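Q: what sequence does this backbone want?
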């Protein structure tokens, strides 16, 4: 028998993964080439060449005892120093040093490390809808409840600072921010971020304790316009960054990331030490050593941004041609599409009948919308055109006469 504590996680098992598994079943029936899977954010690119060059160097030029032995729990000092220097260069300030970078097994693990360090049972996490559903599960791991700030379509899905003010209570110890955003593809405006920061500073003063802004940033490098993605410490001092190379280097299976604690954050020294211990007591011991050494050598490398940019453009053209309303992605690799019917599950089912797999917005606390991931092949996107057009005809026959 499973534990009582596990039961709510089982009940809320991911709809995203469910669609992914559905796609594999459909591929056996219709053929893989005839199923158009936009359900999951699994990068369709191989890592850049620099990653393979780094692997060759590590395997052939470094001491195997160094490569395969235990590093410090925080990670190799050379790796953490390189990351701190790179972050300071990109952020344009002296925000980080080697002792405030803690390597991890990806952004999800980083967030769990942070949650372990800041939450006690009964504390609360605030998230902005629509949001990645696992945030609530990861807070629940440590006995924290989740408060959801409703999406504000009038603000074009920017975080609603006034709604945040209304929802804050003394038990709030953390606020989650994902920028660029999954599922909307939105890059939050500096104006909206400054407004959020003002509200949080007011709340810290009112409640008499720190409220950390937990910034989940695996899509930071995936930007398709000239929009600025500000570094969190630049607009709110008490910020913590959870990062992963899953997207920027197309390495989701390698599980490598970090937590970065800006020197301006309250209690940054103690918190950095606590994060090291958290990584150990959670069972991670340390981040994978080879992956640490790879990313140290590839900090300036990126996956092919033009690939995703072209996919975003082409899918937007096809979805718009079908008569559907959608938001043009500014970042990440997701398109947020308005359901033509109130219950988006009906739309998802109709799409499935056309062998298109998309994820219901309710899986992200965004009812009435759906998410389409465009990180697969451009050829698949174009093969799906007829199915998208047929889907549009079902809901907007007048547009296709």
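A:
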């Amino acid at each position: 028998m499973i534990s009582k504590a596990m039961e709510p996680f089982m009940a809320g098992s991911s709809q995203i993964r469910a669609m992914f598994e559905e796609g594999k079943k459909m591929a056996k029936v219709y053929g893989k080439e005839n199923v158009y899977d936009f359900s999951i954010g699994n990068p369709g690119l191989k890592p850049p060449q620099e990653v393979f060059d780094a692997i060759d160097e590590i395997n052939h030029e470094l001491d195997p005892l160094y490569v395969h032995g235990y590093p410090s729990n925080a990670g190799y000092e050379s790796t953490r120093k390189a990351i701190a220097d790179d972050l300071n260069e990109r952020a344009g300030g002296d925000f980080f040093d080697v002792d405030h970078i803690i390597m991890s097994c990806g952004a999800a693990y980083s967030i769990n490390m942070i949650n372990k360090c800041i939450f006690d049972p009964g504390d609360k996490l605030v998230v902005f809808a629509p949001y990645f559903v696992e945030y609530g599960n990861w807070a629940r791991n440590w006995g924290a409840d989740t408060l959801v700030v409703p999406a504000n379509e009038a603000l074009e899905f920017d975080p609603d600072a006034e709604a945040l003010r209304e929802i804050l209570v003394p038990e709030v110890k953390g606020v989650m921010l994902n920028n660029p955003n999954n599922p909307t593809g939105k890059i939050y405006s500096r104006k909206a971020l400054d407004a959020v920061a003002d509200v949080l500073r007011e709340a810290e003063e009112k409640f008499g304790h720190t409220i950390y802004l937990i910034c989940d940033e695996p899509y930071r490098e995936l930007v398709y316009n000239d929009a600025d993605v500000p570094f969190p410490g630049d607009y709110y001092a008490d910020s913590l960054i959870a990062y992963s190379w899953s997207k920027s280097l197309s390495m989701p299976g390698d599980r490598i990331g970090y937590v970065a604690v800006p020197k301006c954050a309250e209690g940054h020294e103690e918190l950095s030490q606590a994060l090291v211990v958290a990584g150990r007591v959670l069972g991670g011991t340390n981040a994978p050593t080879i992956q640490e050494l790879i990313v140290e050598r590839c900090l300036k490398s990126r996956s092919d941004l033009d690939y995703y940019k072209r996919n975003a453009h082409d899918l937007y053209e096809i979805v718009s041609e079908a008569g559907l309303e959608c938001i043009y992605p500014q970042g990440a690799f997701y398109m947020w599409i308005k359901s033509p019917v109130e219950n988006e599950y009906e739309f998802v089912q109709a799409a499935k009948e056309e062998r298109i797999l998309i994820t219901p917005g309710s899986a992200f606390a965004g009812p009435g919308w759906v998410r389409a991931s465009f990180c697969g092949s451009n050829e698949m996107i174009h093969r799906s055109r007829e199915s998208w057009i047929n889907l549009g005809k079902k809901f907007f026959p007048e547009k296709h006469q």
